[in-house]
Amino acid sequence: MFTLHRFHGGLHLDAHKEDSSLAPLATAPVPPRLIFPLQQRGGQNAQSVVQVGDHVRKGQVIARGDGPMNPPIHASSSGIVSAIEPRPLPHPSGLTDLAIVIDTDGEDLAPAPEERPDYGQLAPEELRRVIFEAGIVGLGGAAFSTAVKTDPGHRPIDTLILNGAECEPYITCDDSLLRNFPREVLEGARILMRVLGVERCLLGVEDDMPEAIRALRETREAGDYSNIDIVTVPALYPSGGEKQLIRILTGREVPTRGIPADAGVICQNVGTAAAVYRAVGRGEPLIERIVTVTGKGIKNPGNWLTRIGTPIADLVRYSGGYSGVAERLILGGPMMGISLPSDALPLVKAANCVLVTGRGETTGPKQALPCIRCGACAEACPINLLPQQLYWYSRADNLQRAEEYQLADCIECGCCDYVCPSHIPLVQYFRAAKSELVAKQRERTKADHARERFEARQARKEREKQERAEAAQRKKTALAKPDTSEIQDAIARAKARKRPPESAPTTDAAPDESPPAQEPAEN
Amino acid sequence: MRFNTAPAPHLAPTASTRRIMQWVLLAMAPGVAAQLWQFGPGVLINLALAIAIALLAESAMLRLRARHSRAGLSDWSAVLTAALLAVSLPPIAPWWITVFGTLFAVVIGKQLYGGLGYNPFNPAMVGYAVLLISFPKAMTAWLPPTDLAATQLNLLEAWNAIVHRAGPDGSSFDALAMATPLDTLKTQLGLGRTMDEIQSGALFGALAGKGWQWVNLGYLAGGLWLLRRGLIAWQIPAGFLAALGALSLGFFLLEPETYPTPLFHLLGGATMLGAFFIATDPVTASTTPKGRLIYGALIGSLVFVIRSWGGYPDGVAFAVLLLNLAAPTIDHYTRPRVYGHPGCT
Ligand code: SF4
Ligand code: SF4
Predict the structure, then answer these.
(1) ipTM attached to this prediction
(2) Which ranges in chain B belong to alpha helices (H)?
(3) Which residue has the least CA distance to atom 4 on ligand 2?
(4) Taking all residues of chain B, what is their mean pLDDT, rounded to a whole number?
(5) How many other C-beta atoms lie within 10 A of the C-beta of residue B235?
(6) Does A369 touch chain B if contact means CB atoms closer than 8 Å?
(7) CA atoms of B185 and B188, how far apart (whole Å)
(8) In this predicted model, what pLDDT tens digit does every residue of B161-178 receive, in sequence order?
(9) Which end of chain A is more exposed for a tag (fewer CB within 10 A), N or C?
(10) pTM score, whole prediction
């Protein structure tokens, strides 16, 4: 029997999954226009490799990034590049950034597929290269480069975890994937295990997805997947959070400020695994994914196999449009998803769910009452933080204390916020305080570097002064030495010349100022 | 289509402070009913008077502090404070006692500290302690429980006693009053009586003090309901009752002649009211799981100490106030281990 480990807190939320999971998976048509923001993940931009007027084919690379963190972007259908211009990003701020716009031609032309039946023989680096070239990023929502994530460096990894615990209410895209493509997921798991060189894979699925579990079990029995364990975990938000799932399945914890690899595991979303299989086994880049369209604000909720770049408005249209009560548009789930100002925004690779809530389904403007220190928030926190204390310190601008109470470990899951009877927007406070802390930290690093540079220069000046003084002294003694044979003198001079200079000339080169590499923080 | 944006989480909240306060008030019902049955309708008059005064004082203070008085009053916390104080008062406490205590609780104990959430001391207990110190005689004059009372007061007679300080048929007010079992115990022990002699007295029932045992069972029932609904943390009442039970059992076993049974302690005085309704006031209690256990246990121990050796018959109010003072320190040293940080699981 497989032992599960509990994490602290968590919430039993109304799942609302039937809304979308009852409808069969449908394939979304090619929209008239596809939009690809060049900014894919937090501030990292890709560069367009096509020009306005170019005809592109389905699966063709249209933009490339500058490193392994930034995989290429592919056209998800054929058509003409009609613009490369600033467009709003799917972000609550409504920020705009460059995007490639493709007017589709409806032909859906694609290059001949490149079958790779022998992919089992490829070396890990080669597989990783294919994964990168296929533009694969984490499809669970964080969109972290999969090629980077499957390269743990020197850290020993013994387990691959596949995350199928779709814990946010309403979202059923992983459920739908597991029901319809269980083999792709298990094949992808096998490839990822090969990349990582691990012998064990745990696939976690929440117990409210019986069909998905059955499909997985059947496929597992039928194929050669004995080292992949399909583990049912209780439906408890946020058990699909990376840190929580790792704890549930292995009992290990990701150390603070660490990454899963520090606990010997790599965690991938099931959708990512399927995409890896398609890339490696069938030569298909990541150009489509399953997106849930649901909520009281949608006429016919369901799951769609959707091309990346499809505008939300089109997908909503395929789903019968908005119902009369549509109130809020959320990308992602109701606990952590972002609320969007407009449906003219495109779906990016990480978009798992379009949730349109109706009246009464979501919070209205909350009138916050004072904290009564009831501790409900602390009971719900999956990280075992004390949100009421964090709130107190964030509000009092006592960031140092907030830091002491481990504010940085907050995963912004919203559990505390949801249960607070005083309706205090806790997560908002934590986000603000965290970004302030990050800014402070950056200042501090900058100041440290400046000081180091200053000290280095001082030390160099000091050294030079001393050297000058020593040289002067040597000269003096040499001059003062009255009776030296010329030959001896010459020998000494030659020796001195052969010896390397006492200290290498220092340059004023600035020490490495690049900030420490950001560790992936996925959920 | 355009939409209004809002930060996550988006789900509509299910709990509210007002609801919690209302539920706690509702949970007091069995205890209040027992009090009504055992000590007459005076408790109802006290409750009505205290609640009215609390609401007036709260709204006046909110206005003075330029706060939205509707929002402030709608949280029902003033009502709860008033109710907790009112049920702690003698059933025919003179009206000005109730008024003074409630004013003190709401104005000084709560609003002057910044209102709900900012008060370091349990406001009801602040009011109670001030009354006990200022008017010790009036505060210890209880009515005898129903089956000992010569005359049963009806609502009007209770009103007369409270407002006009007059007993029925012109009898004197003082003739109505009687000491509580805890008080009696203390005086009698002081006079050198043994436990056996004292407990054979009329004031003592099968489980604990006559009348009081039912009141305590009533509050116990309400408290258990609160626990079931997850409205209070189990650690505080558990710590409280365990510590009080253990200490009283220990001393009872050592010297049964001078110490009453644990049952007498657990079902006497303000024990259950204190354990489930007063010590659990979230604002002033400890908030960490371990901290709450310690907090509750220390209150329970202090209650035993004050009852056994202190100057007052019951110790709940003072024990709670003292521990209110220690709660921040307790919290500081009982922070739970955060995920991903070293330490024992
Ligand atoms: S849940 Fe809200 S009211 Fe309760 S302690 Fe936490 S922040 Fe305060
Ligand atoms: S948002 Fe942060 S503090 Fe609140 S429950 Fe989640 S992890 Fe804990």
Answers:
(1) 0.88
(2) 17-27, 29-39, 42-64, 69-73, 77-88, 95-103, 123-134, 136-140, 155-164, 173-176, 181-190, 195-199, 212-228, 235-254, 262-266, 271-272, 289-309, 316-333
(3) A416
(4) 88
(5) 22
(6) yes
(7) 5
(8) 787 777 766 666 666 677
(9) N
(10) 0.84
